[in-house]
Design brief:
575 residues, OB fold (Dihydrolipoamide Acetyltransferase, E2P), inorganic pyrophosphatase (n-terminal core), Diaminopimelate Epimerase, Chain A, domain 1, 3 domains, five-stranded mixed sheet, 21 helices, 19 strands, 42% helix, disordered N terminus
């Protein structure tokens, strides 16, 4: 029997190991701080050459699109459609990766050829991915070719249905294929077992970009014809939380350059609406663009996001951006209300508090935000969580997990109670009969109890390197900024500093945040700990503490200073 850790219990700290010989060798060639060399080695950058490629990405590092299985077939089929005057439908999912993919492909194709349109399925009427309604629409309107982006790899029966209607499919997807591959004219997916493409972690928009690159080459267009879509590719990479290594890093690097120098009208409109004046970083794409684009599909129509990205004028883009902004405001309100309601349900029920999982069902909750609410509950209770709501005659829900626990597998073990389910390691979706909700809650808890390791119920903080305050210099921070674009497999570094003392000026700000003023060996530095007001007593105890933090730049009255963005604090062992 696993015992549930108390909420608010000290988090586990784990320092990432590294090859010290390789770090020492890298230090000799790069002459940068040893802690930064250790971080680079942890990330597989262990020679001067790999460091040069990492810090100075070049578009020449991109792989040839022709290395991808079926690329020749895909290009040939599209050019045949051009020659024969066939209507082409660009089809994509309603999230950021799907809508940016569709916008890129639609804009590129329509500049070369007139008979092109796009289609985004309605989240609630049609569900995720290739839909029967979408195929029927294509058939009724006389489309002979559908290019699916960010979906299609699992749509075996629907693509066969389209084929029977005389409609060919080209699938551009990045999700893990099943054993059976759809009977499409071409399937572009580097995750196929027999696909020789060297980089396997492209997002859906990245796969679409490869097809655009190959078409541009075959049509003898300059490479810039494809590169003009890199800001949208970077947006998809950022929002879809794919690996920020290898080719994705190069695409994101040049995508950010494009977003800052000559952005897509949709990105420009959303930046203007968000009053963004600083340069655009990956975090801006994640927190400024992605929520508004996703909100369109969650609260209304995902098609609006494509309209935003294909806008030819800023005026037109601002009109669509305003609509997305309203959708996002409504999404935030629904998200906040449902989260508060969900927390109250748990707090008011001793049985729910003491479980190892959370499964909640309320028929009136908005289907578009149950996944976000599940994530919020994981942040609060740190355990596998499912939030369910009514969807027509059925119950539908979203699951979110904690680090290291396969929630899809846990849902799979409850399949006898489900009408359908899908997902991956950390997130899943499911539908079930209302009569089975109670049994599903019970079964899911039993599965989690039987399979989760107790350590997984305690949040873990991964530390990249231990440093002292005298290491934190402008040149040290400058190299950290050159790790951009940051994301999975290349996260913003997390540092540990031991035996730090309060200066006497630390205080709570805005009721729940903690403004740190701390010193070590005569060096004082300030920092902010969001939601860490409960740590003030620890800090003012007079005893030395250990801090885990990220390094940040704070600008105030035109002055820039380095500060700590504190992640956690605890008493030093020496104290």
């Amino acid at each position: 029997m696993v015992t549930k850790p108390i909420i608010g219990k000290t988090k586990r700290w784990r320092q990432v190991p590294w090859n010290q010989e390789k770090a020492a060798s890298l230090f000799r060639s790069l002459k940068i701080h040893p802690a930064l060399c250790a971080i680079l080695v942890q990330r597989g950058i262990d020679t001067f050459e790999t460091a040069k490629d990492f810090f100075r990405p070049q578009l020449s590092q991109l792989h040839s699109p022709w290395l991808m299985k079926d690329m020749e077939k895909a290009v040939t089929r599209i050019l045949t459609a051009f020659e024969q005057g066939e209507k082409i439908l660009v089809f994509g999912d309603y999230d950021v990766d799907g809508t940016t993919s569709v916008a890129c492909m639609y804009k590129f194709l329509s500049k070369q050829y007139p008979n092109v349109d796009f289609y985004i399925p309605h989240r609630y009427r049609e569900g995720y991915g290739v839909s029967k309604a979408g195929i029927d629409h294509a058939h009724e309107e006389g489309f002979r070719l559908i290019i699916s982006l960010d979906c299609g790899i699992k749509s075996v029966s629907l693509i066969q249905y389209a084929k029977d209607l005389g409609i060919d499919f080209i699938v551009c997807d990045h999700h893990l294929p099943d054993e059976m591959i759809p009977a499409a004219v071409a399937v572009l997916n580097p995750k196929q077992a027999d696909c020789p493409y060297p980089f396997k972690e492209l997002c859906g928009c990245g796969v679409g970009f490869k097809l655009i690159s190959a078409l541009a080459e075959r049509l003898q267009l300059p490479p810039e014809t494809a590169y003009q879509y890199l800001d949208l590719v970077a947006t998809a990479i950022a929002a879809d939380i794919v690996s920020m290594s290898g080719e994705n890093r190069v695409l994101a690097y040049y995508g950010l350059k494009k977003a800052n120098e000559n952005p897509n009208m949709g990105i420009k409109a959303l930046s203007q609406l968000s009053k963004l004046v600083t340069p655009i970083y990956i975090t801006n794409l994640v927190f400024m663009i992605a929520p508004r684009v996703n909100a369109a599909g969650r609260m209304d129509e995902g098609r609006k996001a494509v309209e935003l990205f294909v806008s030819e004028t800023l005026e037109e883009a601002l009109d669509w951006a305003e609509q997305l902004h309203v959708d996002n405001t409504n999404r935030k309100e629904a998200d906040m209300n449902i989260t508060e309601e969900a927390l109250a349900l748990i707090e008011g029920d001793e049985t729910l508090i003491n479980r190892l999982s959370t499964v909640l069902y309320q028929p009136h909750w908005h289907k578009g935000v149950v996944g976000i609410v599940a994530s919020r509950l994981v942040d609060h209770y740190y355990r596998p969580t499912i939030v369910l709501t009514q969807s027509g005659d059925y119950v539908a829900g979203s699951a979110r997990s904690v680090s290291g626990f396969n929630v899809y597998e846990a849902v799979h073990q409850c399949k006898d109670l489900l009408l359908g389910y899908g997902g991956h390691f950390y997130a899943a979706g499911m539908t079930l009969d209302p009569a089975n909700v109670e049994a599903f809650c019970k079964k899911f808890e039993e599965v989690v109890e039987a399979s989760i390791h107790p350590d997984l119920l305690i949040p873990e903080i991964v530390i990249d390197a231990e440093i002292n305050f005298n290491d934190i210099t402008p040149s040290f921070y400058n190299i950290i900024t050159q790790l951009e674009p940051m994301g999975p497999d290349n996260l913003s570094p997390t540092f540990l500093t031991k035996n730090v003392r309060n200066t006497g000026y630390s205080k709570v700000v805005k009721e729940k945040h903690l403004r740190f003023s701390v010193k070590q060996n005569g060096i004082t530095i300030t920092g902010i700990g969001f939601g860490m007001s409960d740590k003030l007593d620890l800090l003012t105890s007079g005893k030395p503490v250990d801090l885990v933090y990220k390094i940040d730049e704070n600008e105030w009255n035109g002055q820039k200073n380095l500060q700590l963005k504190v992640v956690d604090v605890k008493l030093s062992e020496a104290g």
